[in-house]
Amino acid sequence: EDYDERRLRIGRELKLVDLRGAELQLDVDRSRFRVAAWRRTPDRRGWILMAYVPAGLGAEESLTPLGRTKITERVRNPSWTHPETGVTYAPDHEENVLGGYWMRLDDEGLGESGIGLHGYTREVPSSWLGKRASNGCVRLLQADMRRLFHLALTGTPVVIRDGSARPG
Fold this sequence. Notes:
This protein has one helix and eleven strands. The chain has 168 residues and is mainly beta. The chain starts with 23 loop residues before the first strand and ends in a 7-residue tail after the last strand.
């Protein structure tokens, strides 16, 4: 059954996953334009897929870099600096395209700075989702970014690869 918060009703039974102290890893699959969130099982013998969401990635001239890294910063309502003009837009400015969420990735392991995961509000999803269109960042639908933002904390490992795999 697909998750849809609009279907929540008073009296409805919910199943929750306790993530306190849980080991989590995000995997970005460049070949499938997907981000997977994996949680280690309590017995530490396996992994549970917590989310598997579509993404937009770096354009051919600015590919999303491959590598192993981690989330170094999580910002709710970040300002945004336009990569070409250098103009910085406040969180509530209509030109700020980050959609209210930013998770910066550590430069080490990627060999590039300024790469992260964020929402994206400039264009309709069909123009960038599942395509190479960003300056190297991982763009997500607003609802998906909101969910990942609340799952993945600072220090969460992130692997960017061509192809999917279980963490390990």
